[in-house]
Amino acid sequence: MKEIHGSGVALITCFNNDLSIDYDSMDKLLDHVTKGCIDYLVLLGTTGESVTLSKKEKNDLIKFVRRKYTKIPIVIGIGGNSTGNIIQEINETDFDGIDAILSVSPYYNKPSQEGIYNHYKMIAKVSPKPLILYNVPSRTGSNISSQTTLRLAHDFENIVAIKEASGNLDQIMSILKDKPDNFTVLSGDDSLTLPMIYMGAKGVISVIGQLFPREYTKMVHEALNNNIDKANSIHYNLYQLYAPLYQEGNPVGIKAALNVKDICNLVVRPPLINASKEIVYQFKSLLHNK
Length: 290
Prior knowledge:
Elements: E1 6-10, H1 23-35, E2 40-43, H2 55-68, E3 74-77, H3 83-91, E4 100-104, H4 113-126, E5 131-135, H5 137-140, H6 146-155, E6 159-164, H7 169-178, E7 184-187, H8 193-199, E8 203-206, H9 213-224, H10 228-245, H11 252-260, H12 277-286
Parallel strand pairs: 1-2, 1-8, 2-3, 3-4, 4-5, 5-6, 6-7
């Protein structure tokens, strides 16, 4: 496995006005982020609106990226609230050229901690690739506790990392304190990446990283190399952008920002709606001198 650490990007899925996948814009986006020296790509995550994509669209998108970008690690999202469906999708996916799976914790069902443990246990037993847990309570409606994360990390060698987006620094510190040496903690919150790295995290799966890949990657690398002043300087230069990215939901904000940079359309799939004129204007103002 290519090591998953440093600056990863949770890629959007670009759409045409008719809601079909816009491969020309995907090509432009991928060229932008890879020239920005990001460390790995994440496809089909929540930022990629994966829940709105058909099985064929997912497979076609994986093939498109895998065919063009063979030297950079690729992580794909396979998660949801039906353990059986996830296992079926894993069994039906061609993992050639794929380095790991990012699997979001079950949403809506609100399973117990034992239920979450058993969910990932069943996935780990069938997964042909290393598994990255994804904890994002604001989206799923339930939290993977630090105890459950640590139990999974110690019990399964192929559960290699967690994308932690709980925003709970005490919980994250508990994981960092007692995790196995070969288990990686990644930030799932752009604005908290630096404090998490200072506590011991090894990188991020970022949204803003696809807007400013070179700058955000440099920030992450400076932090990992203990160049705190340089990392902080970049962080605060980007700080004003963090909040508006999520003001109208994700990936609405990042698509608006990328649209200002002429990389993709504003288009999102229902039930999301396209960015308002106000948020587009806000990004035009914020990005004017960047």
